C-alpha cells in the first residue's frame, strides 16, 4: 500500500512523461490532488498521456518540450506558472540511454547527446524552475540520476558520467537554495521495468536475469515504486531531507 499525500492546490511540473517513471510520477502527483504540467519531446505520446489523466478527472497541461533547448524549457515552465499560478514541485525525469561502448571507441556525438539530455536538460529545467520558486520562497525539486550516478559499470562511461553530473548539480544547488526555502534532491533508480528497460532487454543490451540477480530484492523495480520516492521527497514528510541522492534500486548499491 502506498502512502497517501494531499497535494491539493499544489502545482507539479514533470519532464519525460511519455511513459515509464515520468508518466507514473505525473499520475501519482495528479492522484494526490496536484495540477500537473506534462513536458515531453514526443508530442503524440505527450498528448496521449495528458488525455489519459484528463479522462481520469485530473487537472493537467500538455507542454511539448525538448529539454536540450533551454528556450523551450523556459517557455514550458513559464507557461505552467501562467496557467496554474505557481510552481510547487518539479520532477526532472527526461533522459536517454545509449548502447554500451568501449571507452576507447565511443563517438563524441553520442557523448554529447547523452549529456545534452541527461545533464544539460536537468540543468536547464532546474534553472527555470528555481526562477519561479525563488520568487515564491518555497518549492521542492527532484532530479533523476541513476544507480549509474553512484557506481561505474564497464561500457557505460558516457551514460554514467551524465548521471554522476546530475548528483553533483543537485548537491550544489541544494546547498545554495535550502536557506531560501527550496529543497532539491535526486533519486537514483536501479533497473526498473519500464519501456526503456524492456527495449534494452530486447536489444540484448541488458540481461533481465542478471539484472534481477544484481538487485538483492531479486526483481526489477516498478515505475510506481520509483514515483513514490519522488512524491515522498516532495512531501512535508521529507521536510528535513536536502541534497540527497536516494537509491531506489532494490539494494544494488548496498551490496
From TrEMBL:
Keyword vocabulary terms for this entry: Oxidoreductase
Coiled-coil ranges (or none): none
Matching Gene3D superfamilies: NAD(P)-binding Rossmann-like Domain (3.40.50.720)
Pfam family, one: adh_short_C2
UniProt family annotation: Belongs to the short-chain dehydrogenases/reductases (SDR) family.
UniProt protein name: SDR family oxidoreductase
Organism, scientific name: Kitasatospora herbaricolor
Amino acid at each position: 500500500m502506498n502512502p497517501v499525500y494531499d497535494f491539493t492546490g499544489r502545482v507539479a511540473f514533470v519532464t519525460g512523461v511519455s511513459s515509464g517513471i515520468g508518466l507514473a510520477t505525473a499520475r501519482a502527483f495528479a492522484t494526490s490532488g496536484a495540477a500537473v504540467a506534462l513536458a515531453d519531446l514526443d508530442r503524440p505520446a505527450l498528448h496521449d498521456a495528458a488525455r489519459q489523466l484528463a479522462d481520469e478527472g485530473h487537472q493537467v497541461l500538455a507542454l511539448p518540450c525538448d529539454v536540450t533547448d533551454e528556450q523551450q524549457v523556459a517557455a514550458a515552465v513559464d507557461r505552467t506558472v501562467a496557467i496554474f499560478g505557481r510552481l510547487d514541485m518539479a520532477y526532472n525525469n527526461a533522459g536517454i540511454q545509449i548502447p554500451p561502448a568501449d571507452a576507447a571507441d565511443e563517438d563524441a556525438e553520442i557523448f554529447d547527446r547523452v549529456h545534452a539530455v541527461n545533464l544539460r536538460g536537468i540543468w536547464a529545467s532546474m534553472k527555470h524552475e528555481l526562477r519561479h520558486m525563488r520568487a515564491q520562497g518555497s518549492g521542492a525539486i527532484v532530479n533523476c540520476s541513476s544507480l549509474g550516478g553512484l557506481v561505474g559499470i564497464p561500457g557505460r562511461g558516457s551514460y554514467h558520467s551524465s548521471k554522476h553530473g546530475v548528483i553533483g548539480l543537485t548537491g550544489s544547488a541544494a546547498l545554495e537554495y535550502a536557506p531560501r526555502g527550496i529543497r532539491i534532491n535526486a533519486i537514483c533508480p536501479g533497473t526498473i521495468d519500464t519501456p526503456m528497460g524492456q527495449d534494452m532487454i530486447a536489444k540484448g543490451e541488458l540481461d533481465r536475469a542478471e539484472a534481477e540477480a544484481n538487485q538483492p530484492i531479486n526483481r526489477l523495480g516498478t515505475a510506481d515504486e520509483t514515483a513514490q520516492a519522488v512524491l515522498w521527497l516532495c512531501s512535508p514528510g521529507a521536510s528535513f531531507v536536502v541534497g540527497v541522492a536516494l537509491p531506489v534500486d532494490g539494494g544494488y548499491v548496498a551490496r
